[in-house]
Amino acid sequence: MKKLLIVVFAAMLSPLCLLAQFKISGKVSEKTNNTALSGASIRLKNSNGGTNTNSAGIYELKQKAGTYTLMISFVGYEPLERTIELKQDLNLDFSLKPSAYLADEVIVMATRAAEKSASTYKNVSKSEIAANNFGQDLPFIINNTPGVVVTSDAGAGVGYTGIRIRGSDGSRVNVTVNGIPYNDSESQGSFFVNMPDFASSVENIQIQRGVGTSTNGAGAFGGSLNIQTSAPSLDPYAEVNTSYGSFNTLKNTVKIGTGLIDNKFSFDGRLSRIQSDGFVDRGASLLKSYFLSGAYHGKTDLLRLNVFSGTERTYQSWNGVPESRLRNDQQGMLDYISRNGLNEADAANLLNSDGRKYNSFTYKDQTDNYWQDHYQLLYAKQFSPRFSFNGALHYTYGRGYYEEFKNLQKFSDYALPNPVINGSEVLKSDLIRRRWLNNDFYGVTYAFNYKALDNLNLTLGGGYNEYRGKHYGQIIWSQVASSLDNSAHYYDGRGHKDDFNIFGKITFNPADQLSLFADLQYRGIKYDITGKDNDQKPLDIHDRLHFFNPKVGATYTLDPGSNIYASMSIANKEANRTDYVDAVKNTLPQAERLYDLEAGYRIQRSAFNAGLNVYGMFYKDQLVVTGKLNDVGGNIRQNVPDSYRIGIELDGSYTLNRFFMINANAALSRNKIKEFSEYIMNYDSELEEMNTYKNTNISFSPSAVLFGELVFKPVKSFAVALQSKYVSKQYMDNTQSEERKLNGYWVNNVRLGYDFSIKGVKNINVGLLANNILNKKYQSNGYTYGYISDGSRLSENFYFPQAGTNFLLSLNVRF
């Protein structure tokens, strides 16, 4: 009886024993001289659990009893794996051998936040990118990260897409590729349509929210995307990827790589083609790209040449859908036709189209066409264990145009004489025009890193870049012949921009648990706009700007798996080309300034990891749309004295058991302009009226962005993920009017992936992405303008509907 009681008691305690956690601890050092490696990574294979070593190379993590594979890695050293049976506390020391070659990660280290950085960031790994890459543009691949909202003109994620981080649009998100600026120098936007399928050549992405660390290019007013291209595979490979799905979306990708040849050389290549009809009428895209990379890997140096290019032909769908068409308001559509003077064909198109798929353009070649070639020469050198350098020379050549049919255009608007036919002067004609942009962008970036002491690290970096842009227009056809031939330009404008920056970073660890940093950047800009604009306005604008952007912060380590941090940063940003061109005569738009306060807590355990941060972003002279119009009716942005964004963000992952894992993030914010003056044209009096508002919401800034994902992995090679995202309502202007807003939306997707292999094939992956499985009808973007007529205010609201339920199926074969 006594033995039976003992057995029963043991059986009752066995689940508790399985739940008990044991400690794994030890030291990671360099094999050759036993020097401690601070910041080395210790991870559990096929799990989110893990930690990093402290300044003495010590690590500690806790885990339930079981069998695990530990992965130990550090930049510049060969990684180790060790399988352990965890039944009690273990003390395990590891010695890492210096790598036979310098790792590619050194290329981006100077502009990246690290584990102990007092910055708010999210790392997206190569495997995460691959799992979500079905051919949609890069913004859609990182859509599930905190505070991110994406949109697509054609409604399905292919073609022209946009991204906002913390409510800031793409022109305020700094994008670098291997530390080289990608944002357009004049518009400051990032056009991912010019980089089709670039995600297939990306190793990882770091998304920094807020000001972030010093980097090259335009100032980060919402966040930064720091993209690192693919590192070489150790072994030769060939890979074929095909995706096909709704709206005749088809992606074909071929990748090849030599692996390391003689442990010194590697060559990689990719060729891609994507086509899609788009969700909206005529929202088609044809995108092509290639990526070539060759590298020499030495023990202490790395030389890499990247050449990549993208071409796009996209039917224009950037006008959106009028509100009356979207709501199927018949009388509203008739009023819209009358107000805007639509001809019979355009009126019929409006009245007879599918309300969510309507496209106002019907001319067969109403397309956007652009070609962009990139050349990057990257070099890194490890002079000694304490001193290293990385730098790059780069050149980008872009050229392209958009073509459009224009009805009854005045010859005088094109600086052309009125033709005389049969003795009568002709004032207007239908015509087809092209507006061109040709540009060259080139420069150098660099960074020196010096580990002065074991607890003191210094970085000196910067860059110098020049942009030379040509803006011009052509009339390629006119119903009534003019004096201008097809190749002549009816306007010529130029934009020249020189951008210099230098930054210094200091990281100091006065104690094992405390890390302090200072990051100081000077940026100087010379910007000249000359020639003639497309509205025949003469341009002679010159500006010289000098910015000082300091950042300071501290991180305190609570234990090997958790820390708290706080930072304060100041960022300055110049206006874009349109702001300069539309500025009131003899004045220049003021530069914007941002004061960014960030504080957070990060924790990493064997079964879960989480980050919680709060922020306050306080703007001085932020540029916003006020309703004021230029002389051709376009919206003008103006400086507002005071505005702010304050919020809280949560990002976490929890492994429930070997079958289930939960990923979730939330971004809650308050985004306000303290005092906002709206300008609206009164066509009854032909005068502009002004309305003043207090504490209004900043446009396109949702107060809540929530994401959750449940991953079910019944076997190692198969996974199903249910994804759910909610974006709260957004106002389309800064008046906080309920009549001019985007409704909140909640969208659910399902992603499946199955990996297997057969003889002669390393891996086969079959994937399925089912978007918007509940067929939610929603609009992710829009715009509005208004005026007063006949004593009443009229608002012209336009929306960009996104696709209902749609599918993408992929097959990836790796040899």
From TrEMBL:
It is a multi-pass membrane protein. One of its GO terms (cellular component) is cell outer membrane. Residues 1-20 form the signal peptide. The keyword Methyltransferase does not apply. Residues 326-773 form the TonB-dependent receptor-like beta-barrel domain. Its main location: membrane. PROSITE patterns: TONB_DEPENDENT_REC_3. It is found in: Cell outer membrane. Keywords: Cell outer membrane, Ion transport, Iron, Iron transport, Membrane, Receptor, Signal, TonB box, Transmembrane, Transmembrane beta strand, Transport. The keyword Metal-binding does not apply. Residues 116-223 form the TonB-dependent receptor plug domain. GO terms for molecular function: siderophore uptake transmembrane transporter activity. InterPro entries: Beta-barrel_TonB, Beta-barrel_TonB_sf, CarboxyPept-like_regulatory, Plug_dom, Plug_dom_sf, TonB-dep_rcpt-like. Coiled coil: none annotated. Belongs to the TonB-dependent receptor family. This is TonB-dependent receptor. It comes from Pedobacter antarcticus 4BY.
